[in-house]
Amino acid sequence: MMTQFSTFSLRHIARKLLACVAMASAVLALSACGFALRGPVAFPFSSIYIGLPDSAPLGGELKRNIRANGKTVIASEAKNVDVILEVLGETREKVILSLNSQGRAREYNLIYTFRFRVRNEAGKELLAPTDISLKRNITFNESQVLAKEAEEALLYRDMQSDLVQQIMRRLAVLKTD
To answer: Among 5, 43, 119, 154, which residue's Cβ finds the most Cβ atoms within 10 Å?
Structure first.
């Protein structure tokens, strides 16, 4: 009877030890792959003018993200700045994706397109006119109109946040020479 108990205990201890070794090796493998959380974005310029008003949702979010790095000044005028972000266009579309058997819209494709360019104060183009287009699908149900409108607004906010992150990445790799 004593030998069964000790065999069970040894197996239990061996399993625990094996689990600890597996966890330790997973942690080491993850740290060795170069994984790191995103920190503040470092821009190759010290001041920027953004051609979007603070009252615009996209402008406010973009400026908040740039201010978060703490090193870049956002100017209120396009004078005496290193970089000017010019907005060439911003559109939101809702396109019917599919119809039900009665010919009514069942699914929509939401499209958010933003076009911009970046230049310095002298007018030299640092980033040619660039289009960023984001798409999301949304189903539609006539019995849930208010919920679907709220879902659509939420999807547009999500696309806006994604757009801001893409703009931030493009600004971070500018060549200002």
So the answer is: 43
DSSP string, 112-170: EEEEEEEE-TT--EEEEEEEEEEEEEEE--GGGHHHHHHHHHHHHHHHHHHHHHHHHHH
Q: How many CA atoms lie within 13 A of 50 on its CB side?
A: 22
Sheet holding 83-99, edge to edge: 73-75, 47-50, 83-99, 105-119, 125-139
**pTM of the full structure:** 0.72
Cα 121 from Cα 106, distance rounded (Å): 48
Contact yes or no for 134/112 (Cβ under 8 A):
yes
CA dist., res. 166 & res. 177, Å (int): 22
Residue written as tokens 């949304």?
138
Q: Is the pLDDT of residue 150 over 60?
A: yes
